[in-house]
Amino acid sequence: MLYIQSFTFNPFQENTYIIINDKKQCWIVDPGMYDNNETKLLTDYISSNNLTPQAIINTHAHLDHIFGINPLLKQYNIPFGLHKMEKDVLSYAPASAAMFGVSLATVPTPTFFIAEGQPLMLGDDTIEVRFTPGHSPGSIIFYYAPGNWAIGGDVLFSGSIGRTDLPGGNFNTLINSIKTQLFTLPGHTTVYPGHGPATTIDTEKLHNPFLQDWPCTTSSLPFNIGTTGCKSGVAQYSISLSRP
Ligand SMILES: [Zn+2]
Ligand SMILES: [Zn+2]
């Protein structure tokens, strides 16, 4: 069985997750530690629980999800993987850092690529990889059926969805990813997002304003929201544009 430990790091309040198996092997997902103190919090957790890191895997390569990768690569000498469609996003990270006014010393280099439909094995446990572009071109989610959870990155949030105005983003692609790759998971599946609290598939199906089929003719949002996200022709909700 696999377990999840969550942390929240950096100026963008990004969620970093550790996936742990019964043999105390672990993967680190989206390491967002911004400074030495945050890195120490994570590595202290790993050492005090006698965990053995096996790899870093990323849902996508936006800078708030990669700040902490290089210190971990240095400390543990483990592989770092993400979807190959995130290569451009990774190389855009320094420009993104300048745009958001944060520092990014170095950009990590992936040592392997993760493909959708290709299961990831942590010891004897299998994680399913689903391709969920839209927020970024190579976004993936990690689904663990026996534990009824998925780590979703910035695709679907509690009551919201990822922004789609950054390079490679696309609103209709994102909505399609959510409907075909997340809303096809069992309703009781817990989704651990890249920002904010965990939610479930059923909760978002019922209440997420961006995923209801309400009629909509106008929108005050900074992109074409199509036929979702508003009621009576007036946008009621907004997507956080303060983070990548
Ligand atoms: Zn993010
Ligand atoms: Zn992102």
What does this protein look like?
The structure is a single chain. The chain has one domain: 4-Layer Sandwich (Metallo-beta-lactamase, Chain A). With 244 residues, the protein is an alpha/beta fold. It has five helices and 16 strands. Mean pLDDT is 92; it is low at 215-234. The strands form four sheets. Strands 1-2-3-4-5-6 form a six-stranded mixed beta sheet, covered by helices on one side. Helix content is 22%, strand content 26%. The radius of gyration is 17 Å and the shape is globular. α3 links the parallel β5 (80-82) and β6. The site of one zinc ion has 6 residues, from loops.
Question: What's the layout of helices and strands?
Answer:
Blueprint: E1 3-9, E2 14-20, E3 25-29, H1 36-48, E4 52-57, H2 69-76, E5 80-82, H3 87-100, E6 112-113, E7 120-122, E8 125-131, E9 140-144, E10 149-153, E11 156-157, E12 160-161, H4 171-182, E13 190-193, E14 199-200, H5 201-207, E15 230-231, E16 234-235
Parallel strand pairs: 3-4, 4-5, 5-6, 10-13
Antiparallel strand pairs: 1-2, 2-3, 7-8, 8-9, 9-10, 11-12, 13-14, 15-16
One zinc ion binds next to loops.
Tell the overall outline.
globular
Task: Work out the strand percent.
Answer: 25-35%
Task: Please tell me the CATH architecture by its name.
Answer: 4-Layer Sandwich
Derived structural class: alpha/beta
Q: In the CATH hierarchy, what is the class?
A: Alpha Beta
Q: Give the termini separation.
A: 32 Å
Structural features:
244 residues, alpha/beta, Metallo-beta-lactamase, Chain A, globular, binds zinc ion
